[in-house]
Design goal:
Blueprint lengths: L2 H36 L8 H9 L4 H14 L22 E7 L4 E7 L4 E10 L5 E10 L5
Antiparallel strand pairs: 1-2, 2-3, 3-4
């Protein structure tokens, strides 16, 4: 191999790697834009909601954790009736809140399941004069089982 062929090979390799880097940078930019869109309705990215809580004197990180845990703690119930999910399990298993997303300083969306059936709830919440969280079911649905 002569030196011209070696240089040509290196230049070809460099162009190939530059193209690969360019493609990866475009993919990263696309994923960052998608992530931004997906996180839009999320209290952690909602400065207005966060500022509202800060102005009220709350530690936002602790409050967000307490709001989420408050819903998950409702999964520890006795009997057939979940404290906030307005359906009864159709399988004999307990209905459990599975995933929670706090949208802002007043609204939450969550899904629930009994292992076979799935549904979603829309919940409003507030903090009373005693700093206790109050949850109120606003809307709900359960998906029909498709055979």
């Amino acid at each position: 191999m002569n030196s011209k062929n070696i240089i040509d090979k290196y230049e070809k390799d460099i162009r190939k790697y530059k193209k690969t880097v360019e493609d990866k940078e475009k993919a990263v930019a696309t994923l960052e834009a998608q992530n931004f869109d997906l996180s839009y309705f999320n209290i952690e990215h909602n400065d207005n909601a966060l500022d509202y809580f800060v102005a009220q004197g709350y530690n936002v990180d602790e409050l967000i954790k307490a709001i989420t845990e408050g819903l998950y703690n409702m999964n520890d119930y006795k009997g057939d009736d979940h404290p906030i999910v307005p359906f009864v399990s159709l399988t004999g298993s307990k209905l459990l809140i599975n995933k929670v997303r706090i949208l802002n300083h007043r609204w939450i969306v969550a899904n629930f399941t009994d292992g076979t059936y799935w549904g979603e709830i829309f919940v409003t919440y507030s903090i009373d004069d005693h700093n206790d969280l109050q949850y109120k079911l606003a809307e709900s649905f359960i998906y029909p089982k498709l055979d």
